[in-house]
Design goal:
Elements lengths: L2 H15 L27 E7 L6 H11 L5 E6 L5 H7 L3 E4 L5 H10 L5 E4 L11 H9 L4 E5 L10 H18 L11 E4 H6 L8 H11 L4 E5 L13 H20 L2
Helix pairs in contact: 6-9, 8-9
The structure holds guanosine-5'-triphosphate and magnesium ion.
């Protein structure tokens, strides 16, 4: 039986277990060397991101992915830049899809759906997320998770601007109350997903896409687990207006949670 068939057969069981699987579990890095033919390796992984004028960070982010995955993960950038970001991405072997800048979610949705490897990992292209955690994310998928979500707030996220930290805690509280399920970080950019999860759901949000990508799978009974991660200070300029973006995210959390509840 192929690993994909084995996992598809186990899907209903995992959905039933999902109520207890949601939050705050530390995950150990497991065997990602590929010795077990039933396990996914980095050859099954696409690391994807929206990139919008990130020339200060993209080289470091792509170098880190190359080092950590030994060059085995595929990298896809959906790019709307007017600087050298796409050239640097191509020099590092990434696949670059050009797209006029239309916001975070429009780019990331395209980036998630464009490749066809069975595991997709999202990140921001600003050097805030620890690519050295990729083996732990893959190990969690191999343990049966459908979605592994990097929880930046667990370790305190000191490098995050205080306003954003407050907002992110508020979003998590709001989402937890609406879902009836405790989550700690709804707006993280670093997650791993089984492809079948992202392909089976219709995504509607833009700035709020990150929250939507957590809320809809969780409320549909997928095995979603938060994994604590460190968070670094951003390289380069933010692309998000904190007030306008924050309001859009709060609206998305409300809309998506209610849609899922009454689905
Ligand atoms: N292609 C594309 N990428 C985008 C767009 N908006 C944001 N991005 C990318 O999406 C990622 C997230 O944007 P950020 O500016 O880091 O937003 P954020 O993480 O909420 O804010 P920070 O706390 O400043 O990091 C980055 O890699 C951006 O380059 C867009 O309109 N088009
Ligand atoms: Mg960012």
């Amino acid at each position: 039986m192929s690993s994909m068939q084995r996992r598809a057969n186990g899907r209903e069981d995992r959905r039933d277990e999902a109520d207890t699987a949601a939050a705050g579990t530390a995950i150990d890095a497991g065997d990602t060397t590929g010795d077990d033919p039933e396990e996914y390796t980095f050859e099954d992984v696409s690391v994807v991101m929206g990139t919008y004028n990130e020339e200060a960070a993209i080289g470091t982010v792509l170098d880190d992915i190359e080092t950590v995955t030994d060059g085995h993960a595929e990298v896809v950038c959906v790019d709307g830049s007017s600087d050298r970001t796409p050239e640097i991405a191509r020099e590092h072997g990434a696949r670059v899809i050009e797209q006029a800048p239309q916001g975070y979610g429009v780019a990331v949705r395209e980036a998630i759906l464009a490749p066809n490897r069975p595991i997709v990992v999202t990140t921001d292209c600003d050097d805030t997320y620890p690519m050295e955690q990729l083996p732990a994310f893959l190990a969690a998928i191999n343990e049966g998770c459908d979605v592994v979500s990097g929880d930046r707030l667990y370790h305190g996220a000191e490098a995050m601007p205080a306003f954003n930290r407050f907002g992110n805690r508020a979003f998590a509280t709001l989402a937890s109350a609406l879902m009836g399920e405790v989550v700690h970080d709804t707006t993280t950019g670093m997650r791993a997903y089984r492809r079948e999860v992202v392909e089976s759901i219709e995504w509607t949000e833009n700035t709020g896409l990150s929250a939507e990508l957590l809320i809809r799978p969780l409320m549909r009974g997928y095995d979603v687990r938060e994994h604590p991660i460190a968070y670094r200070e951003r390289a380069g300029e933010t692309k998000l207006d904190p007030i306008e973006g924050g309001l859009a995210i709060a609206k998305s959390i409300l809309k998506v949670s209610l849609e899922e509840r009454f689905r």
